[in-house]
Amino acid sequence: MVILLMGVAGSGKTTLGRTLADELGWSFADADAFHPPANVAKMSAGQPLDDLDRAPWLTAIRLYIDARLAAAQNAVVTCSALKQRYRTALIGDPTQVKLVYLKGTRELLWSRISSREGHFMKPAMLDSQLATLEEPADALTVDIVGSPGQIISAIRRGLSL
User: Percent helix, strand, coil in the chain (nearest 5)?
Assistant: First the structure.
């Protein structure tokens, strides 16, 4: 199984993904590691990515997911996956890839990303992500209010893990 944690910047994908993977003894992959250098440069300059920028990134993540499934290796993967078509590109087999949407208010998300240092995602890009977000109808939706432990417990309960 692969758990795909999705949500906008500041939703806790990386922190929660690493911790969840550690708890389960699964591998972990952060979508940020799959960005080509041109995407990182663009985002570091405060420019949102367009669909042309995202295509090779989504393909690389999908290949990683498919490789884990083909090898019968469980994994936790993070990706903003803001649009339904991105999620469709990422998830080949929804029986093996479980989508978890980390949902929070703009105020909470802004607070979190404003306090981060050294990340290429700039706080001003949050509104662009929120405008792009198509909330999934087919995901386990978890509110990100609360401690990481509480959020991970909610994910584990929701996925019967």
Answer: 50, 15, 35
DSSP assignment letter at 138: S
Total tally of structural domains belonging to the chain: 1
User: Which tokens in the block code for residue 140?
Assistant: 């386990």
Return d(Cα 52, Cα 54) in angstroms, integer: 5
5, containing H or E segment: strand 2-6
Is a pLDDT exceeding 70 seen at residue 24?
Answer: yes
Domain assignment of residue 27, given as a range: 2-158
The edge-to-edge listing of strands for the beta sheet with 2-6 is 27-30, 75-78, 2-6, 97-103, 140-143
Q: How far apart are CA 119 and CA 19, in angstroms?
A: 19
Q: What confidence score (pLDDT) does residue 120 get?
A: 46
> With the CA atoms of 116, 122, 127 and 128 taken in that order, what torsion angle do they form, in degrees rounded to the nearest 10?
-140
CATH label of the domain that carries residue 112: 3.40.50.300
